[in-house]
Backbone:
């Protein structure tokens, strides 16, 4: 049985006040019997504050990005060791905004995935096709290439300590959620792709769906056989919405 994950990607939003308010709302509102794993990913500048606020709570802390380098002359970058030092257990790699806006290729994403695991962080590997690629019938080809590039670098066994997030680019921040069937189809394909290389890793690997998840659509998405939770952008900035998503899990 795979435990559902509700993960919030705060992107470049927030302030010290907002970080404290949102974390306290989530901590206070999370049901004692909540059966899901909760992860929040604030911006780098608020990780330390978030870590302090989360002390003693089961909510996990993740970062949104990691350097390909371990240390040294890389102005503006943040290393895996630093993220661990700041209290992170997880890090997003390959988010579509990083791929599209900051030129991250699948090869760069694979190095980041490896760097994360080298320091003990759990990478959340984001994959997904654009609308153009979906309409051209290339969804499976695109996500397979994104996945295989990482497997090619780190090997299939590394996926035992990772999470996947299928995030169709056309659904991110648009309010246009994939239908549960559309999500399930791609999730099942990803699981089959992993299973062809290691069945037990495929069985235990959590595959999250991301793309306009909110309090109203989370339950039907999470009910799908191969959807093991959500990576949530916009709705994770609203305490009540995010709590509804956690409850849906
Ligand atoms: C995301 O950025 O990972 C995301 C899924 O955003 P949203 O939920 O706003 O579509």
Residues:
């Amino acid at each position: 049985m795979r435990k559902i994950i509700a993960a919030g990607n705060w992107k470049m939003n927030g302030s010290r006040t907002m970080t404290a308010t949102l974390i306290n709302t989530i901590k206070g509102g999370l049901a004692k019997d909540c059966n899901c794993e909760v992860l929040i990913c604030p911006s780098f500048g608020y990780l330390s504050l978030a870590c302090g606020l989360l002390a003693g709570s089961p909510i996990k802390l993740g970062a949104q990005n990691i350097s390909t380098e371990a240390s040294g002359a890389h102005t503006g970058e943040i290393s895996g060791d630093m993220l661990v030092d700041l209290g992170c257990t997880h890090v997003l790699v390959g988010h579509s905004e990083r791929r599209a806006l900051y030129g991250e290729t699948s090869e760069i994403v694979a190095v980041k995935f490896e760097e994360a695991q080298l320091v003990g962080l759990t990478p959340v590997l984001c994959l997904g096709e654009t609308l153009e690629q979906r309409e051209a019938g290339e969804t499976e080809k695109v996500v397979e290439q994104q996945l295989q590039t990482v497997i090619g670098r780190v090997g299939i066994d590394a996926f035992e300590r990772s999470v996947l997030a299928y995030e169709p680019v056309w659904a991110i921040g648009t309010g246009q959620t994939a239908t549960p069937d559309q999500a399930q189809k791609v999730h099942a394909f990803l699981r089959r792709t992993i299973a062809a290389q290691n069945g037990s890793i495929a069985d235990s690997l959590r595959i999250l769906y991301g793309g306009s998840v909110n309090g109203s659509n989370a339950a039907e998405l999470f009910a799908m056989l191969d959807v093991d939770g959500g990576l949530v952008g916009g709705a994770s900035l609203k305490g009540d919405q995010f709590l509804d998503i956690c409850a849906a899990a």
Q: What stands out?
A: The chain has one domain: 5-248. Residues 9, 167, 172-173, 210-213, 231-235 surround phosphoenolpyruvate (CB under 6 Å). The mean pLDDT is 97. The CA atoms of residues 12 and 43 lie 6 Å apart.
